[in-house]
Amino acid sequence: MAGNREEAPDYGRGVVIMDDWPGYDLSLFTYPQHYYGDLEYVLIPHGIIVDRIERLAKDIMKDIGYCNIMVLCVLKGGYKFCADLVEHLKNISRNSDRCVSMKVDFIRLKSYRNDQSMDEMQIIGGDDLSTLAGKNVLIVEDVVGTGRTMKALLSSIEKYKPNKIKVASLLVKRTPRSDGFRPDYAGFEIPNLFVVGYALDYNEYFRDLNHICVINEHGKEKYRV
Ligand code: IMP
Ligand code: MG
Question: Which intervals hold domain Phosphoribosyltransferase (predicted)?
Fold first, then answer.
């Protein structure tokens, strides 16, 4: 699972899961019965996800834990990551001399794609974004694929002149379609696979699965819309 020992590890990539990583057999873990037969394997068990988030919280606190943070959770996929991250940030904040005050807000994104390129992004919900002016914003996202969503969101938010914007993404995909965007904090770098669980969905299904798993062809067919 780890990278090549000859090279200096790049911890900015997070935990690197290689393309030949076979995952864990589903029979070794528990998961909802209604998803029996729909999954290929467990890519990241729930416990490892939470342990990794604990470390991300420590890294975030080290960087920006001396000021007030506005946490912006990108729904729906980011809700589990955001909840666990905020919990760890609160724990660190309570048990250290760092004094961080956190506000949390939730947004949803609606994108318009035109010839594969995202021209415009609509931000739905959340408080009036003009309140972000001068604030230290931490965007919490589930997965960066091509990076287009994040780039579009960042350029929308930059208009409101926050003091600082940092991006935490639980997952980053290694995809040839990447536009090169890299979050400031990455939980795991994963192969170019469609994954579900831990709030990530396939047509709204699988958000109620604890582990991050790879969906199989049967699952894709069953929940296709
Ligand atoms: P991007 O614009 O290609 O970076 O896509 C990012 C968005 O697509 C994420 O915020 C997710 O909502 C969604 N997405 C990309 N890959 C997956 C996946 O494997 N499972 C579930 N949602 C995904
Ligand atoms: Mg997302």
Answer: 47-202
